[in-house]
Amino acid sequence: MNIKPIRELSGEITVPGDKSISHRGVMFGAISQGITELSGFLDGADCRSTISCFQKMGIEIHQENDHVIIHGKGLYGLSEPSEILDVGNSGTTTRLISGILSGSPIISTLNGDASIQKRPMGRIITPLSMMGADIVSLRGNNCAPLKITGGHLHSIHYDSPVASAQVKSAVLLAGLYCDGITSVTEPVLSRNHTELMLKGFGADVTSQDRCASVKGLPKLYGQKITVPGDISSAAYFIVAGLICPNTSLTIKNVNCNPTRDGILKVAEAMGGKLKYDNLREVSGEKVCDITISSSELTGTVVGGDIIPTLIDEIPVIAVMAAYAKGETVIKDAGELKVKESNRIDSVVSNLQAMGADVLATEDGMIIHGGKTLHGAKITTKSDHRIAMSFAIAGLNALGETTFDDGECVAISYPEFYTTLEKICH
Ligand code: S3P
Q: Does the N terminus or the C terminus of the chain have fewer Cβ atoms within 10 A?
C-alpha cells in the first residue's frame, strides 16, 4: 500500500459497479414484488451495509461477489427489525432507507460508525417530518442514531435547500407510501439514479429540469439490473493516467450518466486527452469505454451547476490541479465539509504535506499547481476517497507516500490497490 513514483501506466481495466446504483438496486428490489437480480453489484462495505439492513427486516438476499438476488416483498413487506440497523459508514444507506422506513408500519433504529454519527440528518428529518413521519435524532443533534416510527404519510412538494440526491431520494421514496404526487425541486440537479431506476421498477416518475415527482402507492416489480462501472472509482485512474508519463490506459464499461460526468468535463477543460468509445445504454444508464493519455494540464475554475455532478471526485480533481500548470479554483462546494470527512480540510492538509501550494476557502480551495510534490504520510481520516486520491498523487511524487489507514478503500473499492498495481510499471 506504499506508493512509489512510476514510469508508465498502461493496460485495460474495468472498475467495480456503481455504488449509488448498487444501493438502489437492493433497496428497490426489497420493496418490489418478486425477484430482483443484480449483476455487477459493488461488493464493498457500504453496499453490504444496505444488504444487511434489509436482511434484518426479513428480506431474503443472496450475495455472491457482484451477483445479488433479492426476494422482494412489496412496499409493505418489511418486518420490524429486532436489532439496530447498522449503516456502517454509508450516508446513502442512512438517508435513502429513512424514506422507506418512514412509510413502513414498523419501528426501527439506524446507527453507524463515528463518521456517520457526525453527518447532518436534519436535511432528511425536515422534509420527512413535513410528510408526517415520526423520525427522531436520539441525541437531539440532528445526526444518527435515528429512531423511525413508520406510519401514515402524506405527499408534499419539497423545495430542497441543498442539491443532494440523497435528500431528493429520501423524499421520493417516502412519496411511494403517499396517496398522490410527491415532488422535490433542488437548487441544482443532482444525480438521477433514483428517478431512472424507480421508473424501471414500474413507478410513475417524472423529471423536468430540477424537479422530480413520483406518484404514490405504485405496484413495483422485481427487475434484472446490470450495474455499470462506477465513474467515481474510474476517476482515480483517469487522473492517474493524465498526470503520469507514458500512459496508455483504457477503462471499460464506465457509467457516464450526465448527472455524474463532471470529472470528464473538468479533465477536458484542463487539457486532458480522453477518448470515448462504445457509448451505449445499460439498464437505463449511459455507459462507455474511456481511453486516457498522458496530458499537459492547465488550471481551471470548477464551480456552479457542475458541482453535484462531480462532488465525490473533488479530492482527486484537486490532485489533478496540483499537477497542472497555473491556478485552479474550486468553489460552491461547501458540501465537501459534510462528507465522510471534512474533505476541504483533508484534501488541503494532505496536499500541503506533499508540498503543494493550496489554500482552503469557505466553499472549496485554490490550488497553484505545478510545484514538485514529494511523498508524505497521508492522514485519511478513514475516508476512502481521500486514501485513493492521495495514492494517485503519490504516483508522480518524489519518494514514497504512506497512509495511516489505507484499508478504508474497502468502503467503495476493495480491489483498488490490486488494480493500481496491475497498470503501474
Ligand atoms: C449519493 C449522493 C451524493 C454522493 C454520495 C452518493 C447517492 O451525496 O456524495 O457519495 O448515492 O445518492 P449527496 O447527494 O448527499 O451530495
A: C
- Nearest 10 degrees: Cα torsion 187, 268, 289, 420: -100
Q: Which residues pair with 10 in a beta bridge?
A: 248
Is 312 catalytic? The answer is yes
Spatial distance between the Cα atoms of 260 and 338, rounded to a whole number of angstroms? 19
390-402 pLDDT, tens per residue? 999 999 999 999 9
Q: Determine the Cα–Cα distance for residues 316 and 322; give it in Å rounded to an integer.
A: 10
> What spacing in Å lies between the alpha carbon of 260 and ligand 1's midpoint?
10
d(CA 124, CA 163): 12
CB neighbour class for 177 (10 Å; exposed up to 12, middle 13-18, buried from 19): buried
Q: Is 312 in the pocket of ligand 1 (CB under 6 A)?
A: yes
Cell numbers found for residue 272: 486532458
Tell me: the pLDDT tens digits for 102-118? Answer: 999 999 999 999 999 99
* Residues contacting residue 117 through CB under 8 Å, at least 6 positions apart: 111, 143, 144, 145
